[in-house]
């Protein structure tokens, strides 16, 4: 039995080292970014309620990091064929799973250690910082284990990533709607969420260590099932096999595009919902966390602008993917069937615009629910929903710019990242900059709802600009040549 176990883990060290070497930049980026976020948020929050919400926000970020580090090394490696290549050497049955988890575990541990330093530097004290970091550590391990288990039952990396992020969003929702009836502590429903465990551990008023043991038990159980599932399936397929025959036939471009993007959309929406639920609860308890000293309405309006900017980032990524498909020859192959260029362009931009809009609305709704629940103010939820709708015309301008770039100069889509960086700086530091500096930011042309009064003109003008840019992009795509993949000599 001992020899069998040793054989099953043969090659683990090599695969773990390869994973760490591959992900070293990504691990450093995630760890530093979360630690900096923890320092900035902790330095602006001092109330007891805010400390529990801060623990939830940081736990969500660590959970998202864990999922994005586990999935590529497990299901992604199988789907791409890298694991099959590795298995040509001396590799045990459980070595890929163990090696794949090592990168995520290393990142979680490093992030927790940096959080202790960052939070103590922000004035939280060593004991409080250690408790909060321990809570995020356990939550990260829980979702890393869950993602590893999902990878065993789903045979697509994007699907595994999406389902794992759905679990994060569901846990965030449970934590938001599951407080105790008297408003103090966590209710029975809330205890089903790992984020509630980290909040109780990180609480300033009544810290409790015992919720960490719940997380440890869950991690052990998830890993036990995961290792069992590895021995029950073949390489490249899930333990639960597909049924029902082959792939469905597509009767038009819309089903094809939706099928191609379905798991990406699920991943983005789930991740944004989880972050917005946690952040909404934090803003509801301590709106000063933005560092501006602003009230709840101003802080909420600023955060909703950032959610729209995140949706704009998705738009740029989606259009970049369309450009890559064109350069690889996929677009030319699709257009070889009876399908007009205008129809293909219209479908791609329509799905991209719909996805970005849905992303903004879901984030805004999650933020509104969490913030209103934290303040026990139903009217605040309605005001925040209106503010979410109010930022959509500015988002339409960025969607129109991406459509214009794709229609006329596809490589120019990459330059939109510089423009988004400019808009982000204006959104965060616009009050400290000259008025003329914000003239090119569409979000700066809108009143900051719900803190400022509504104006009819700016949303209509921005929506019109976005529509005109999209129409011009469609005309440019209809007239220009389609890129062909380069063939090596």
Describe this structure in words.
The chain has about 500 residues and is mainly α. It has 2 domains: about 1-240; about 255-290 and about 295-485, no CATH class. It contains 17 helices and no strands. It has helices spanning about 1-10, 10-40, 50-80, 80-85, 95-120, 125-155, 155-175, 195-200, 210-230, 255-285, 295-330, 330-335, 340-375, 380-390, 390-410, 415-430, 455-480. α2 packs parallel to α5 (about 95-120) and α5 (about 95-120) packs antiparallel against α6 (about 125-155). The longest helix is centred in the C-terminal third of the chain and has 35 residues, at about 340-375. It starts with a helix and ends in a 10-residue tail after the last helix. The model is unreliable at about 290-295 and about 485-489 (pLDDT under 50).
Give the biggest beta sheet.
Answer: none
Radius of gyration: 24 Å
The topology string of helices and strands comes to: HHHHHHHHHHHHHHHHH
Number of strands: 0
User: Distance between the terminal alpha carbons, to the nearest Å?
Assistant: 55 Å
**What is the average of the pLDDT values?**
78
Q: Can you count the helices?
A: 17
Q: What's the layout of helices and strands?
A:
Layout: H1 2-8, H2 12-42, H3 48-80, H4 82-86, H5 95-121, H6 126-153, H7 157-177, H8 194-201, H9 211-230, H10 253-285, H11 296-328, H12 330-334, H13 341-375, H14 378-390, H15 392-408, H16 416-429, H17 457-479
In brief:
The chain is mainly alpha-helical.
């Amino acid at each position: 039995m001992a020899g069998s176990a040793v054989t099953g883990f043969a090659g683990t060290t090599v695969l773990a080292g390869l994973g760490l070497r591959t992900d070293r930049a990504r691990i450093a980026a995630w760890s530093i970014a979360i630690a900096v976020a923890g320092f900035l948020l902790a330095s602006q929050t001092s109330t007891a309620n805010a400390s529990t919400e801060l623990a939830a926000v940081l736990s969500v970020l660590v959970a998202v990091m864990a999922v994005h580090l586990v999935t590529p090394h497990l299901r992604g490696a199988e789907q791409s064929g890298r694991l099959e290549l590795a298995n040509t050497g001396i590799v045990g049955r459980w070595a890929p799973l163990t090696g794949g988890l090592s990168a995520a575990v290393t990142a979680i541990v490093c992030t927790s250690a940096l959080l202790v330093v960052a939070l103590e530097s922000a004035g939280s004290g060593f004991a409080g910082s250690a408790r909060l970091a321990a809570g995020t550590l356990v939550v990260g391990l829980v979702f890393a284990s869950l993602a590893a288990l999902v990878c065993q039952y789903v045979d697509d990396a994007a699907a595994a990533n999406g389902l794992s992020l759905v679990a994060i969003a569901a846990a965030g929702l449970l934590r938001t709607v599951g407080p105790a009836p008297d408003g103090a502590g966590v209710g029975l429903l809330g205890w089903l969420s790992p984020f509630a465990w980290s909040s109780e551990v990180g609480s300033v008023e009544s810290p409790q260590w015992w919720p960490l043991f719940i997380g440890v038990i869950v991690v052990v159980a998830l890993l036990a099932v995961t290792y069992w599932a590895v021995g029950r399936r073949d390489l490249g397929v899930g333990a639960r096999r597909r049924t029902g025959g082959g792939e469905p036939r597509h009767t038009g471009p819309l089903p094809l595009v939706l099928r191609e993007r379905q798991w990406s959309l699920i991943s983005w929406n789930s991740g944004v919902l989880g972050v917005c639920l946690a952040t909404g609860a934090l803003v509801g308890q301590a709106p000063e966390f933005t560092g501006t000293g602003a009230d709840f309405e101003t802080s909420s309006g600023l955060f909703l602008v950032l959610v729209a900017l995140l949706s704009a980032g998705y738009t740029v990524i989606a259009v970049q993917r369309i450009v890559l498909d064109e350069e690889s020859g996929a677009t030319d192959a699709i257009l070889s069937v009876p399908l007009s260029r205008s129809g293909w362009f219209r479908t791609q931009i329509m799905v991209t615009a719909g996805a970005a809009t849905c992303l903004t609305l879901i984030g805004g709704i999650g933020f509104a629910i969490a913030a209103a629940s934290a303040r026990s103010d139903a009217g605040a939820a309605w005001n925040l929903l209106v503010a979410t709708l109010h930022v959509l015309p500015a988002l339409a301008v960025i969607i129109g710019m991406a459509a214009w770039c794709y229609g006329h100069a596809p490589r120019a889509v990459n330059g939109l990242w510089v423009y988004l960086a400019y808009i982000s700086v204006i959104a965060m530091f616009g009050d400290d900059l000259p008025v003329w500096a914000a003239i090119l930011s569409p979000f700066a042309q809108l009143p900051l709802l719900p803190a400022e009064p509504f104006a009819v003109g700016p949303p209509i003008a921005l929506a019109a600009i976005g529509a005109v840019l999209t129409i011009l992009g469609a005309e440019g795509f209809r007239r220009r040549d389609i890129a062909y993949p380069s063939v090596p000599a």
